[in-house]
Amino acid sequence: xxxxxxxxxxxxxxxxxxxxxxxxxxxxxxxxxxxxxxxxxxxxxxxxxxxxxxxxxxxxxxxxxxxxxxxxxxxxxxxxxxxxxxxxxxxxxxxxxxxxxxxxxxxxxxxxxxxxxxxxxxxxxxxxxxxxxxxxxxxxxxxxxxxxxxxxxxxxxxxxxxxxxxxxxxxxxxxxxxxxxxxxxxxxxxxxxxxxxxxxxxxxxxxxxxxxxxxxxxxxxxxxxxxxxxxxxxxxxxxxxxxxxxxxxxxxxxxxxxxxxxxxxxxxxxxxxxxxxxxxxxxxxxxxxxxxxxxxxxxxxxxxxxxxxxxxxxxxxxxxxxxxxxxxxxxxxxxxxxxxxxxxxxxxxxxxxxxxxxxxxxxxxxxx
Length: 368
Ligand code: G3I
Prior knowledge:
Blueprint: H1 2-11, H2 31-36, E1 41-46, H3 48-53, H4 55-64, E2 68-70, H5 76-79, H6 89-100, E3 105-111, H7 120-123, H8 127-144, E4 151-156, H9 173-178, H10 181-193, E5 198-203, H11 211-229, E6 236-239, E7 242-244, H12 252-264, E8 268-277, H13 285-303, E9 309-314, H14 324-327, H15 349-360
Helix pairs in contact: 8-10, 12-13, 13-15
Bound molecules: ligand G3I.
Ligand G3I binds at residues 47-49, 71-72, 75, 114-115, 156, 240, 273, 323, 327.
């Protein structure tokens, strides 16, 4: 019903054109409503801090999103303060909010080389000990939310990229402890603990047609082909999509081909951490917003047509609190504008570009 209404409304032309510098009207249907009209979803990340104290942002999340992911709550350093205890308070808080508002949640992440507690690596004293630590963690965490999570980023950022070896796995604590088999172990343990969550391998630095990213795409495809051939229960590739509006080599054709290559392995695609950094752009806000919106639209137009693509989550709905200001600060010190809403929660040109990209996406044909 909603999908039909949305589709007819789109046909009636309410797709927002890129306005001038005025924010888009908050009464226009939100990003998830538009995505859902095409069989896609839109969601966003939020931090545990924002969940606990930013009610204005939470209200906007409910208006725009159909899925949530936590920036921090499901990571080892949030749950495993020591080796014997699990602290699920942050993760449970998000799950409680999502349950109250009937929103699906994606888990992020079970295996990563960052956000690990200091006790972890020293505890990886043997293959047996390491495999037990990893499988016990996954069984406890994925098992706790079994049946209640839409997706898991099972393994995050496994590929190094600037290495020349075929699969070029990043030299992480888990690779040193278990070898490449850590990936198999993680996916099998997750499938056993929560068979219903979509199992994703999540990666960045595969978004553009620049040499090291094309090499990383090929390494990821080699890895996924090997995992699929060995019946490791991987189901999807997560493309983080931390975009850079200053990057000129967008290569839509190559990007669409990469998505098709992933799909040819029988895998789905999720855009998991979408934002658009602007530290290479001039200070002018109207100029930045226009460039960011155009860049995002061009990137999404190359991605959304493939039916293997399930949806898009932004890494933060609003510019307030974006990780980019600390990780990739602008030389002039100005706050960046990477998200669909500005720091005052107004819909920006980027919001309009994402809305238009969802409106222009071909509808997914529901399987009969
Ligand atoms: O909330 C706690 C606070 O209670 C505590 O007092 C404080 C001091 O330790 O830490 C706070 O948690 C911080 C958390 O962000 C809050 O959101 C962690 O220290 C901090 O390390 C954490 O940073 C996150 C980072 O990943 C590392 O986990 C960023 O928010 C998050 O945006 C970033 O996200 C990553 C993805 O997971 C993977 N892809 C790249 C992306 C950006 O780096």
